[in-house]
Design a protein that fits this description.
The protein is α/β, with parallel strands linked by helices and about 170 residues long. It contains seven helices and five strands; from the N terminus they run βαβαβαβαβααα. It has one domain: 3-Layer(aba) Sandwich (Rossmann fold). About 30% of the residues are buried. The structure holds 4'-phosphopantetheine. 4'-phosphopantetheine (PNS) binds next to β1 and α4. The site of 4'-phosphopantetheine has 9 residues, from β1 and α4.
Length: about 170
């Protein structure tokens, strides 16, 4: 059987347990999986690129078939350059579908050879997003169980206790 390389692109600001769940599912399907972090986000990220990559490398260490890389510009160009066949994306709820479908079809228009494969994370993570994790951490709420412990530690360090207390 042909070896399938999939690319899981995203902002990962920061990586959550929902992302990890999807990565694990991806490793069960594809021979190799590249988690590709978008270099230039439209909004100022909480974690800079090096931090996002470092956290991803740390939490994906259990899976030897996973590589963490960085990309810039059009995703399809990067997928072509890495000679991958598949783009992996997660769909949590129907609300994700419209945006994901639009992206998948636009990517297909630009590069018909590349297939987008959607996987659903465990239902426990269907409400989880990096944006909410950042907001909860900033406002002093508990993020336990939402992100890996290594990310939780970094989030705590990023949002100083004083700022959290101020927010309460
Ligand atoms: O984690 P996110 O923010 O939902 O990931 C979005 C991402 C990085 C997959 C998307 O913004 C993307 O592919 N950006 C690269 C630029 C690109 O190719 N744009 C055209 C998409 S049709």
């Amino acid at each position: 059987m042909k070896s399938i390389l999939a690319i899981y692109p995203g902002s990962f600001d920061p990586v959550t347990n929902g992302h990890l769940d999807l990565i694990e599912r991806g490793t069960n399907i594809f021979h190799r999986l590249i988690v590709a972090v978008l270099r230039n986000l439209e909004k100022e990220p909480l974690f800079d690129l090096a931090e996002r990559v470092e956290m991803l490398r740390e939490v994906t260490r259990p899976w030897p078939s996973v590589e963490v890389d960085v990309f810039d510009g059009l995703l399809v160009n990067y997928v072509r350059q890495r000679k991958a066949q598949v783009i992996l994306r997660g769909i949590r709820a129907i609300s994700d579908y419209e945006y994901e479908l639009q992206m998948a079809l636009m990517n297909r228009k630009m590069e018909p050879q590349i297939e987008t494969v959607f996987l659903m994370p465990a239902a426990t993570y269907s409400y989880l997003s990096s944006r909410l994790v950042r907001e909860i951490a900033r406002l002093g709420g508990s993020i336990q169980g939402l992100v890996p412990p290594a990310v939780e530690r970094r989030l705590r360090a990023k949002v100083p206790q004083a700022a959290r207390e101020e927010a309460i």
